[in-house]
UniProtKB/TrEMBL annotation:
It comes from Gluconacetobacter entanii. This is Adenosylmethionine-8-amino-7-oxononanoate aminotransferase. The gene is bioA. Belongs to the class-III pyridoxal-phosphate-dependent aminotransferase family. BioA subfamily. Keywords: Aminotransferase, Biotin biosynthesis, Cytoplasm, Pyridoxal phosphate, S-adenosyl-L-methionine, Transferase. Its EC number is 2.6.1.62. Its main location: cytoplasm. InterPro entries: Aminotrans_3, Aminotrans_3_PPA_site, BioA, PyrdxlP-dep_Trfase, PyrdxlP-dep_Trfase_major, PyrdxlP-dep_Trfase_small. It comes from the Bacteria.
């Protein structure tokens, strides 16, 4: 069946993400979304198992969010944030400060997760410069982590391995080590901090789940021990909650499960429930205070054109309304229980290395995926939108996913594995 004309016309001009354009298969033309469904131009409807890269936590086109954005569109779609402020941004900052733990209360808005992490890195390095401490300009981050695709954020992923390896020679050098999980690796980390701590501005970690780097889980104790080490060696602690924030791990923020407050936190993705581009870098008061000075250079010199876009902030405020009025965390608990039960069907199948679930994240890890294109096509043929990567097939559905939709997703995964993924 022929696709729409705009697909034929546009494909020679578009450059797609994470795609070898020489061999790319025609992508699916999406024309509409609703609930957990993606409607394609040819009339097919796919159940979305990953909520558009983990953003659409209330499902697509929630009427409350639509109305909030439409109302804001009529009032003020955008205004620059330099020298001007507006109600949607200040209300959102106030509300984030109220729901974030501890004194995480100073919010800097940007427009993508990568930039939120870049700002966190800049803040961490400048924090020390402003305090008159020189040489603390490296980050300590963990293998398996993913913090974005910009130059600064590639450098805190694993620059030697994985998709950014080509850039390893040109990126700033940080300390990238294994995430400590046992006594020996905590001792090794402590040795590194005691020998090189005066070069390190901050420890950066995705709390509880390293997402795009491999959907790797760790326990809250790891976070508590990182907090202890950060305090002992006087380095800042940054939690990147761009994937885990807003309920995904079962609590509103993953750090709550460890009862740990980082010095800096990054947020994006479900912040606007996937409707608009918005991100936030939030700091504790002692971090912010290091930027208060008579020296103009001590200000944070950053200001993306579309930062704090009023439509995006209105959208995020509407999303927070829904967290307050609808039973999202109970839904996450229900999804977690259902995925735990249903994905169990995959354990023991040939090629399955591990099955794991945390909150509304379900992962089936294989030993190998024989043919990624064939696997993706098989999932689509079963009516689901799931995007496996490397050896990982994962689900991060909307929290509003209906039990029968979730069953459709879990059974499709079991079937493609049985059919020889
Ligand atoms: N940090 C984490 C934990 C992420 O999962 C992502 C995106 O997947 C990013 C940062 C980068 O966000 P963005 O794609 O909006 O730049």
């Amino acid at each position: 069946m022929r696709g729409p004309q705009w697909l034929d016309d546009g494909m020679p001009h578009i450059w797609l993400p994470y795609t070898q354009m020489q061999t790319v298969l025609p992508p699916l033309p999406a024309v509409r979304t609703s609930g957990c469904d993606i409607h394609l131009a040819d009339g097919r409807v796919l159940v979305d198992g990953i909520a558009s890269w983990w953003t659409a936590c209330h499902g697509y086109n929630h009427p409350h969010i639509r109305e909030a954005v439409s109302a804001q569109l009529g009032r003020m779609p955008h205004v620059m944030f330099g020298g001007l402020v507006h109600e949607p941004a200040l209300t959102l900052a106030t509300r984030l400060a109220a729901i974030l733990p501890g004194d995480l209360e100073r919010v800097f808005f940007t427009d993508s997760g990568s930039v939120a992490v870049e700002v966190a890195i800049k803040i961490a390095i400048q924090y020390w410069i402003n305090r008159g401490v020189s040489g603390r300009n490296r980050l300590l981050a963990f293998r398996g982590g993913y913090h974005g695709d910009t130059l600064a954020t590639m450098a805190v992923c694993d620059p030697e391995e994985g998709m950014h390896a080509l850039f390893s020679g040109v990126l700033p050098q940080h300390y990238i080590v294994d995430l400590p999980r046992d006594e020996a690796s905590f001792r090794a980390l402590e040795t590194l901090l005691s020998e090189s701590g005066d070069e390190i501005a901050a420890i950066l970690v995705e709390p509880l789940i390293q997402g795009a780097g491999g959907m790797l889980f760790h326990g809250p104790d790891v976070l508590r021990r990182l907090r202890t080490l950060a305090d002992r060696y006087g380095v800042l602690l940054i939690f990147d909650e761009i994937f885990t924030g807003f309920g995904r791990t079962g609590t509103m923020f993953a750090c709550e499960q460890a009862d740990v407050v980082p010095d800096i936190m990054t947020l994006s993705k479900a912040l606007t429930a996937g409707t608009m581009a918005l991100a936030a870098t939030v700091t504790r008061s002692h971090v912010f205070e290091a930027f208060l000075s008579d020296n103009p250079l001590h200000a944070l010199m950053h200001g993306p054109t579309f930062m704090a876009n009023p439509l995006a902030c209105a959208c995020a405020n509407a999303s927070l309304d829904l967290f307050a009025t609808e039973p999202r965390l109970q839904q996450v608990a229900r999804i977690s229980a259902q995925m735990t039960e249903e994905l169990e069907a995959c354990r023991g199948l040939p090629n399955v290395r591990d099955v794991r679930v945390m909150g509304a994240v379900g992962v089936v890890e294989l030993d190998a995926i024989a043919d990624m294109n064939r696997l993706k096509a098989a999932l689509i043929a079963l009516g689901v939108w799931v995007r496996p990567f490397r050896t990982i097939i994962y689900l991060t559905p909307a929290f509003t996913v209906r039990p029968e939709e979730l069953s459709c997703l879990t059974s499709a995964i079991a079937q493609v594995i049985r059919d020889g993924a």
